[in-house]
Design a protein that fits this description.
- Pfam families: dCMP_cyt_deam_1.
- It catalyses: 2'-deoxycytidine + H2O + H(+) = 2'-deoxyuridine + NH4(+); cytidine + H2O + H(+) = uridine + NH4(+).
- Its EC number is 3.5.4.5.
- The active site is at 75 (proton donor).
- The chain has 160 residues and is an alpha+beta fold.
- It has a single domain (11-151), classed as Cytidine Deaminase, domain 2.
- The chain has helices spanning 21-35, 74-85, 113-126; strands at 11-13, 44-52, 57-61, 91-100, 131-135, 141-144.
- Bound molecules: tetrahydrodeoxyuridine.
- The site of tetrahydrodeoxyuridine has 13 residues, from strand 2 and helix 2.
Length: 160
């Protein structure tokens, strides 16, 4: 029997102001997108902003549904829109901010497993890393240099 250890690396910024200017602006787009989330069931609003290599910024937010599983997370709303409108563009980075109407979120909120899987597909498709920055409403910002670092042992087309 052999043990395998998997390590990953995240970088933590103290707050929004500690981010490089262009990243801060992208995160502010995620804040704006969060305001338009439709989340009457969870009261948990998420905004995502993507920078494409053609300079476009695409945003998305979570869209819930009375039939709960029919809703969609912010990250996938944004990434699928980007994929549908700019199929040839590469995604450089994604900024995510999550906030609850029930209590203030002060720690970085990572993308859910389904969103990680969806983002991983695009990272493989474009053969280039996607940087992921995520935070709550306030507080520290976490950065991953690639989606792959957030999804060890990912499932991808190589096994099909
Ligand atoms: N949500 C996102 O938008 N992104 C995530 O990565 C995690 C969860 C949304 C889905 C749902 O509308 C609400 O947050 C509560 O789960």
């Amino acid at each position: 029997m052999k043990e395998i250890k998997i390590e990953t690396t995240l970088y933590i910024y103290e707050d929004l102001d500690a981010l490089p200017k262009d990243i801060m602006l992208l995160m502010q787009k995620a804040f704006e997108a969060r305001k338009n989330a439709y989340a009457p069931y969870s009261n948990f609003n998420v905004g995502a902003a993507l920078l494409l290599d053609n300079g476009e910024i695409i945003t998305g937010n979570n869209q819930e549904n009375a039939s709960y599983p029919s809703g969609l997370c912010a990250e996938r709303t944004a990434i699928y829109y980007a994929g549908s409108q700019y199929p040839k563009a590469k995604i450089v980075r994604m900024a995510i901010s999550a906030g609850s109407k029930n209590n203030q979120t002060t720690k970085p909120i990572p993308p859910c497993g389904a969103c990680r899987q969806a983002i991983a597909e695009y990272e493989i498709k474009q053969d280039a890393n996607i940087e992921i920055y995520f935070m709550g409403e306030t507080g520290k910002v976490a950065k991953s240099n690639s989606l792959a670092n957030l999804l060890p042992l990912g499932f991808d087309k190589s096994v099909l």
